[in-house]
Write a structure and sequence with these properties.
Helix content is 35%, strand content 11%. The protein has 9 helices and 8 strands. The strands form 2 sheets. Strands 1-6-3-7-5-4 form a 6-stranded mixed β-sheet, with helices on both faces.
Length: 249
């Protein structure tokens, strides 16, 4: 059902792949060879949490139609560890996505989600440098990212993480004590989907409010950053251990 495309390694290449170079390749391939209007990027610490319906696809189409300065539709849930208030946002005209109020904060890019291919190539061109620099560039151009009112993807919490492809001793200790590992999200059943889809859309969709994960009962805020943050979010004695570890870093 799927075509797997691997980076072509030239004879004298010192390095192939890389997140942004692969994204650039996919965008060009989508435009030149596949002739498709959108691409979706999902990373190895993420998953789909429910079935993507025809209504979801129509919402994506509608979002890009009415938000002509948007390049990206972000289909992930919000994180309770980064609590946000609705007064920092406004909903687009069709009720498909939340947009940040520019006078308060800004975000025009992240490396996951659904992209409008032609707009990406026209407005951004290619990805180069740090995500913060790309975000600043989209801000200068007035390009905003839409956050889905009815998300269907999410990061996995409490995963084992790396810093510059390495795991220092204190980093390993933090994640051992926190219980970091593989915690797949249960696919949403009809009751959960109804709760999400029929809620007041001005209630921001936090993952901890709508999703279920075996082994994480009782944890009110999930950690997605790894390291000592996995201890801090669990509170109690684990938060204390996290503070001690940070002092020895």
């Amino acid at each position: 059902m799927f075509e797997v495309v691997a980076p072509v390694k030239e004879k004298f290449d010192k390095k192939t792949g890389g997140l942004y170079s692969n994204m650039n390749y996919a965008m060009c391939d989508a435009a030149e060879n596949k002739k498709v209007p959108y691409v979706l990027f999902i990373q190895d610490d993420m998953q789909f949490v429910r079935t993507v319906s025809g209504d979801d696809l129509q919402s994506i189409e509608t979002f890009f139609e009415i938000n002509s300065r948007s390049v990206q539709f972000y289909p992930c849930f919000f994180k309770a560890s980064i609590m946000k208030k609705m007064d920092q946002w406004h909903m687009d005209e069709a009720g498909t996505a939340y947009l940040k109020n520019l006078e308060l904060s800004y975000s025009g890019f992240s490396a996951v989600g659904i992209f409008h291919v032609n707009r990406f190539l026209k407005e951004i061109g290619s990805l180069d440098g740090m995500e913060r620099n790309i975000d600043n560039m989209t801000r200068r151009k007035g390009i905003q990212k839409g956050y889905a009112v009815y998300p269907f993807m999410m990061y996995l919490p409490f995963t084992i993480s790396y810093r510059n492809r390495k795991r220092a001793l204190m980093h390993k200790l933090s994640e051992f004590v926190s219980g970091a590992g593989f915690y797949p999200i249960q696919l949403m059943d009809s009751v959960q989907c109804k709760k999400l889809l029929e809620r007041d859309p001005y209630l921001l969709p936090y993952a901890e409010m709508f999703l279920k994960i075996d082994g994480l009962n009782g944890i009110k805020k999930w950690s997605f950053a790894g390291g000592t943050s996995a201890l801090y979010e669990q509170g109690g004695y684990k938060r204390f251990i996290g503070r001690v570890i940070n002092r020895f870093k």
